[in-house]
Amino acid sequence: MRLIRLVFAVMAAVLIPVGAIAQTASAPFNLIGLKTESPVVIDGAGPAGFHSDGFQKVAVDFICVSFHNSDPRTATSFRVNFVYYDAMGMHVGGDFLDRSGTFSTDVRIKSYDERTRNANRENCVSMHYPKTGVSLVVYYVDHVDFADGTPWKATLSPIPETLPNYHPARTTPRPRPTFDPLATTTELAPVIQQTYPDCATAAGIAHARTPLFSGLADVPIDPQHNEFIWARTVPGTERDGKIGFAYSVCGDSPNDKSHESAALKLVSTRTGGVSPGVYRVYFPLLTVGRGCWSEVRLLAISLVLEPFANDVPQRVRSATAIASARVTIGSDGKPTDAVLSHDSGNEVLNQAVVKSALASRYWPEIVNGQAVPGTTEFPIVWSTKKTSSTIDVENPGDAKPIPPAVQDAPKGC
To answer: What region does 61 belong to: left with phi over 0, alpha with psi -120 to 50, or beta?
Structure first.
């Protein structure tokens, strides 16, 4: 049998887009079908909420397929492999669908019932999302069994761990210029980092975990790019059940008043409110070479979980629930818009992921050393260890949110 090679660096030559899929901005990831000369042909595949036969909504968190047997023999079972890659082109996991039955020649089996319009769950696989999210799903048939006892197996080279030329939301790989070491530096809007009990404790901290453009690192605290804001309660200022706060800068700051004002405003208007203590406010530096190319990446995560207070008796019928938002990021790293791209099946969780995406901060997309607007996925996975395998949003303490991972910059940046 002819060897089928996975040459992902030249995807256009080997991988074919699934024409039947309606590719829209609301789809949480891209799907690409791999040719393996399988006698069972996948006519279409669709991500959570979509399938290949005309925007028929199916259960979220699933990928569903339509297929037919092109072989003269009757097929009795086959397997579809789904390989997951994140936005940086890294192999992050996968799932597989084992389908059994009696599949006669050229009988097309769709991913939904044409009479009831309900999804055919036998044609769907439940996705297991990695923490970094999924940007691309490559799928292919690798095994078919026939009623006469004969099998068909695909011969494949190993699945690559990275797709160096994969760039979501682009139809062709973009050029990669030679890296120019001459760098530009831009200060982005401040973000809140660590908190401390008082100003004296904060003054004694020499190093701290800090988001640099290259990645997270334990570095010395530079007074020129940090402010420590003391938030303290003011007795006698209680209003509507909430006590008032006063805010001030710890000690003598070496920075100008604009830095101090920005830091004070950030803490005093913090999403979710504040607690007494000292907040470290960091002004990130975007330092990149003129040849750097980088997708939008998370800089600082802010989870907004207030929607859990809603008294809505909704349940997610799974031990894991995934919601994702598609976020538009300005060249300054601030989100300008977020829309739900992967429905968890529960409005409470959906609200939380959209609000968290807007409250977080990002490194902007870099094109040839210049910051430009871009987009990225912001997924949150909620998981529970309850024996009932149910997430109860009225009492979500058992459901732990797992936010997207912070990634390092690509090599050459």
So the answer is: left
